[in-house]
Amino acid sequence: MKNISKFRLTLAIIFVILGISVFFYVPKIVIGQGSDTEIVNKEIQGINSDIKNRQEDIQKIEDKKKQLSEEIKKRQKEKSSLNNQLAILDNRQAKSELDIEITETEIETVKLGMQKTDIEIEDKNKEIDKEKTHIAGVLNLIYKRDNVSSLEIILLNKSLSDFLSNVKYLEDINEEIKDSVDDINKLKRQLENEKKALESQNEDLNNLKNELVEKSKKLEEEKGTKIHILTQVGKSEREYQRLLAEAKKEQEDAAAEIASMEKLVRAKIAKLEGHELGFNDDGLTWPVTKNVITAYFHDPDYPFRYIFEHPAIDIRAGQGTVLKAAASGYVARAKAGPNGSYGYIMIIHGDGLSTVYGHVSKISVSEDDYVIQGQKIGLSGGMPGTPGAGRLTTGPHLHFEVRLNGIPVDPLSYLP
Predict the structure, then answer these.
(1) pTM of the model as a whole
(2) Does the pLDDT value for residue 340 go beyond 80?
């Protein structure tokens, strides 16, 4: 009898230490998961289909742009005539309109992507809430189990087999908590990544909107160029050819004068004792506020490329914008342009560099002046028919050249 009593006492102690009641089993339940998931999947599939359609639209527009570019190149190789030039401008306008259409479609695509991300974020939040609810239920179970008295444990487990089953269940519950915590951490990481993607899409959308505004402005400039030409020559081919000849001569004279003056001024500086021209600036700075480039260095789409290669970048700048020296140096040439002829300023810097500022409507410096980087040197122009604009201006902007040892180079390679 004593041995039996000792056995029962030992068994009771084991129950107290390790026991768990089957009454407190709480299964992991996800209510309506199949229905919610199906709805979310259908929404995402619909958005993906819309995105695919937008991408196909963009590809079709790109194909049209390619055809226009080929037509422009073909026209540029043909003999210059008024009709040919107008056709080039018309094609450029059409190409700009397609650029706008592409940007608008890309904006729609980004908005769809943002809508998709919003749905995915909402879905992940629901999953996290379900996992939290499940963990709360399991913790509640464990809390109740911890408050079960020794007597209750002995009474609720009728046999050693029941007891061992409950010990196994305790292990399963602990493993389930770990799995749920892991699921929450995984969902949280996915949520963080999706939120970052949403922020990136928002940034892309703002950039595209700004790009759309700039492309619309460029389109208006294209139209202005055509109107300006027609205003000057009407429909007269003879008048157009005369204007081309004048514009070509004007540019050739300016190029020759710039090259000559650079050699002359550098030779003059070299003879001055203690006046060695150094280049101590931190590179070049923008002569006007950094803005949209309307024509690039040797731009293949430059409207008058068949007359001369474009040796500069054109920077959008309103009529009368303050011009600043891109680097310190000596003013080699400051030519006013009365009666709509071409006006420009040329500055000689150290390290073989020089800069030219074209379509200047007002000059604030004199030849042989020494100017420092950022100093006001004049005002921009380019409005057709105004001083300094030139014969074939494409509207208000700054024509900005950078030359290395007298040879034009791409200014964007030197600007920050």
Answers:
(1) 0.65
(2) no
